[in-house]
Amino acid sequence: MVESVNAGRPAAGASPVMPEQYSPLTLAYLGDAVFELGVRERLVRMGSRPAKEWRRLSKRLVSAAAQSAMAETLLENLTAEEADIFRRGRNANPKNTAKNASVSDYRRATGLEAVFGYLSLCGRSERIGELLDLILRPEVMQ
Question: Does 84 qualify as catalytic in the annotation?
Fold first, then answer.
């Protein structure tokens, strides 16, 4: 997994990352990018394909419905801290929802993204990789 530019280090003079410091929607905003990068990296490692196919596969895997199903798979593997972040993300009240997803799928997807955003801010790239490996198994990636 590609390390973030700051690799979880707080900016000069900033305190360490605390989950309470960020809204769950802020964590989900970052987690959306972290998750998509993880999906794209794993797709590319599967071998060369036309760009159109990359987009099709990536779009299917980062949809709210797919992320919701992945969240259900992942829940039993989360630490207590990660499960708390997931609940905060799932229970957040965004102003918008996905056009092609149920409210429950969208909320679970937001919870999943919040976990990835939190782990990224904490510099836990190894844990991000572990969780992605659990939910992005080869049969899911096809």
Answer: no
